[in-house]
């Protein structure tokens, strides 16, 4: 009789412990989520956990500068702002190139920490080169200094869908996105959207809850035409129509009101000029260095023992050229602590181009310059149940997006350079979309009943059990809680 009473005591105390522990820390959502899927082949799908998991789609229009939305009518961007939030100034990551910034968006890390320090890199330890133009992209070793959000989402039991996002067709830490399209620039925007909508609307155990979507424009046109060209107006109108198309497809699929949509980019674009060229061949022999990454932030690997020679040959040759030894790169750029950052870095002033000589073709627009320049900043808008409406924020950092997305998805963020506190005002004041297995009314009612039962039990307990019997009880309840705590730590 007494032992039955004691085991019931364990049960009630455990309920009380769970009741007190669970709602306090939103990080527990990931733990709950894993339970939703824990059944695996055990059937019994759905239940409470499947009701309405938060959904999030992150869309990048490559090279969409923050102010493009204001130079021509963009009704779909305007609707997004009205229905959601807009951030005027987003300081992205240095260098303002495509691969580093797309990886920063999904890791919350600066390039020196996530390791994708440029579109073209050399790793001295691997003795290998990386180029976004070659199959080196598919070598996971380049990507594994960080863990992208789709991997974290899946480790916590979520499902991710990726349409062409840089790195999303690479097996990073042994994991591909749950669903993904191998990179193929010729797949039209509409087909990418259709695939994502199918993934989001699949029957529940199959449905993705986090998606990433990438589109190559207006970057390509920005390079070819120059951002100041009036021909860019047509390109921006086309992007606005693509956004409208996406929203329509989401509406048709019944996703529009349930899904959180973030529209941003990796960087902006600035106009180049044929008069603003710096030719390295005029100052230093090519025999003395290897050219690793190109304008406007050029990475040079001097030949053995030639660093000082190359450095002094280039220092001060042009007032529009900054020459840094790796250890002298300004700290605020967060761009020095990685072996893939070369011993010499040359940074052109905005609008200037660094070449070896003028033999190659000239672009009319480029990016990659300092992330303090407004022209390098991307657009940022978001809407959905997690976001406020018709709210404009002055400034954020692109690394802040990662903890924000983790919060929306109910995931515990990995260590990162961002801050949820800096962007929390973007979120709607109401309860954030209930995390998987979340805290709706049913758990609340259950909690109140549980608490009443515990109180009732304690009254009986105090009457029937002596103080001596309480001691082993405390010990055993600690044992019971241990496996749960351990599981929590594994997240
Ligand atoms: Zn880009």
Automatic annotation (TrEMBL):
Pfam families: Phosphodiest
Region called Disordered, residue ranges: 28-48
Keyword hit for Membrane: yes
Listed transmembrane segments: 441-462
Signal peptide limits: 1-29
Top-level division of the source organism's lineage: Eukaryota
Stored SUPFAM superfamilies: Alkaline phosphatase-like
Keyword vocabulary terms for this entry: Membrane, Signal, Transmembrane, Transmembrane helix
The keyword Transmembrane appears for this protein: yes
Compositionally biased tracts (Gly residues): 39-48
Name the record gives this protein: AP3A hydrolase
Record organism: Muraenolepis orangiensis
């Amino acid at each position: 009789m007494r032992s039955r009473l004691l085991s019931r005591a364990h049960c009630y105390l455990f309920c009380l412990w769970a009741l007190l522990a669970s709602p306090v820390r939103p990080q527990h959502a990931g733990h709950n989520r894993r339970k939703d899927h824990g059944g695996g082949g055990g059937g019994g799908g759905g239940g409470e956990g499947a009701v309405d998991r938060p959904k999030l789609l992150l869309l990048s229009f490559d090279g969409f500068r923050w102010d493009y939305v204001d130079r021509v009518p963009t009704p779909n961007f305007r609707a997004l702002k009205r229905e959601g939030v807009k951030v005027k100034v987003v300081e992205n990551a240095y260098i303002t190139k495509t691969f580093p910034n797309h990886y920063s968006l999904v890791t919350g890390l600066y390039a020196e920490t996530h390791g994708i320090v440029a579109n073209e890199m050399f790793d001295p330890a691997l003795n290998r080169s990386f180029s976004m133009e070659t199959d080196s992209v598919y070598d996971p070793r380049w990507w594994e200094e960080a863990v992208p959000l789709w991997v974290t989402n899946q480790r916590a039991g979520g499902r991710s869908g990726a349409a062409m996002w840089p790195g999303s067709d690479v097996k990073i830490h042994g994991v591909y996105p749950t669903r993904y399209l191998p990179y193929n620039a010729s797949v039209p925007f509409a087909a990418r959207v259709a695939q994502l909508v199918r993934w989001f609307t699949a029957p529940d155990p199959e449905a993705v809850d986090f998606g990433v979507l990438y589109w190559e424009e207006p970057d390509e046109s920005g390079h070819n035409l120059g951002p100041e060209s009036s021909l860019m107006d047509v390109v921006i109108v086309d992007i606005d129509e693509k956004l409208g198309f996406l929203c329509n497809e989401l509406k048709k699929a019944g996703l529009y009101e349930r899904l959180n949509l973030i529209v941003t980019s990796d960087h902006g674009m600035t106009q180049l000029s044929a008069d603003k060229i710096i030719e390295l061949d005029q100052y230093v022999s090519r025999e003395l260095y290897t050219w690793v990454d190109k304008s406007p932030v050029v990475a040079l690997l001097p030949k053995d023992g030639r660093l000082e020679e190359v450095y002094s040959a280039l220092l001060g040759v042009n007032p529009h050229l900054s020459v840094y030894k790796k250890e002298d790169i300004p700290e605020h750029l967060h761009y020095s602590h990685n072996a893939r950052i070369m011993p010499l870095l040359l940074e052109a002033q905005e609008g200037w181009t660094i070449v070896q000589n003028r033999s190659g073709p000239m672009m009319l627009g480029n990016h990659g310059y300092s992330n303090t320049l407004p022209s390098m900043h991307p657009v940022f808008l978001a809407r959905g149940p997690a976001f406020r409406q018709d709210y404009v924020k002055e400034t954020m950092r692109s690394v802040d997006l990662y903890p924000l997305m983790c919060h929306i998805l109910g995931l515990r963020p990995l260590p990162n350079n961002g801050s949820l506190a800096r962007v929390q005002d973007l979120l709607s004041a109401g309860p954030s979309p209930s995390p998987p297995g979340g805290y709706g009314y049913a758990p609340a009612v259950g909690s109140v009943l549980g608490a009443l039962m515990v109180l009732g039990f304690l009254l009986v307990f105090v009457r029937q059990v002596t103080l001596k019997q309480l001691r082993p009880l405390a010990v055993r309840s600690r044992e019971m809680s241990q496996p749960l705590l351990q599981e929590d730590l594994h997240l």
